[in-house]
Specification:
Strand order of the largest sheet: 3-2-4-1-5
Distance between the termini: 55 Å
Radius of gyration: 19 Å
CATH superfamily of the largest domain: Tetrapyrrole methylase, C-terminal domain
Strand content: 25-35%
Low-confidence stretches: none
Structural class: alpha/beta
Shape: elongated
Helix content: 25-40%
Order of helices and strands: EHEHEHEHEHEEHEHEEHEEE
Number of helices: 8
CATH topology of the largest domain: Methyltransferase, Cobalt-precorrin-4 Transmethylase, Domain 2
CATH architecture of the largest domain: 2-Layer Sandwich
Oligomer: single chain
Number of domains: 2
Largest sheet: 5 strands, parallel
Number of strands: 13
């Protein structure tokens, strides 16, 4: 049976991949991915065949992977972070219905939530949720409902895709929504370029976050009502009694 690994490569640095991910890439004949992600791993697996597609060509990328596997090649489809968190794993299973003779194996990776949390300190120690502010695939009304629901339930919230050229005010809109249920003094943090060149982090209040400029390479963390700042780090208590 032909085999495709769907591999989360984490932030992109070789030493932040799991051992299993590295083994899968070494074992593969072909590595397929979005151009930017392929560039992150190319130097470490120089003897492999690389195939890329640009953004918004995700279905084509999946079909390409299955067609290569049908030729008898071992294929790795790579995603940044974790393949099952805003990654390609789900789409690979959907496209894979047309390729019953190809086996899929999903390999997890460090996603921006956990990678960024490690930089900020310990913001995700209690219940948290991930919400993407990108409305390319999700209507803004649904994103708004999720922001309000999570804020009312006092979740720590981690935001992916907080801003882009077309969505420059989405973080401000999100903060205004969250402040209906969260105090303006809520401890928050941002991390840009996690584990890559130019990594930057900052801890601030929700009110300050509202007016902070971020980009697509920034992950945003909004604390719950117990989250505090300790020596410049963002820390959410688990609730253990001293």
């Amino acid at each position: 049976m032909s085999k495709i690994y769907v591999v989360g490569i984490g932030p992109g640095a070789y030493d932040q991949m799991t051992g299993k991910a590295i083994s899968a890439l070494q074992e593969s004949d072909v590595i397929i991915g979005y151009t930017v992600y392929v560039d992150l791993v190319k130097d470490h697996f120089a003897d492999k065949e690389f195939l890329t597609t640009p953004m918004k060509k995700e279905v084509d990328r999946c079909v390409l992977a299955f067609e290569e596997a049908k030729k008898g090649k071992t294929v790795s489809m790579i995603c940044s972070g974790d393949a099952g968190v805003y990654g390609m794993a789900g789409l690979m299973y959907e496209v894979g219905e047309d390729y019953p003779d190809v086996e899929l194996e999903i390999l997890p990776g460090v996603t921006a939530a956990t990678g960024g949390a490690a930089v900020l300190g310990a913001p995700l120690i209690h219940d948290f949720c991930l919400i993407s502010l990108s409305d390319l695939l999700t209507p803004w009304e649904k994103i708004e409902a999720r922001l309000l629901g999570a804020s009312q339930a006092d979740f720590v919230i981690c935001l992916y895709n907080p801003s882009s050229r077309k969505r420059h005010d989405y973080l401000k809109k999100a903060c205004d929504l969250m402040m209906r249920y969260k105090a303006p003094e809520t401890v928050c943090g941002i991390v840009a370029n996690i584990a890559r060149e130019g990594e930057m982090s900052q801890v601030m209040t929700l009110k300050e976050l509202r007016d902070t400029q971020v980009d697509m390479f920034t992950t945003v963390f909004i604390g719950n009502s117990q989250t505090k700042e300790i020596n410049g780090k963002m820390v959410t208590p688990r609730g253990y009694r001293r």
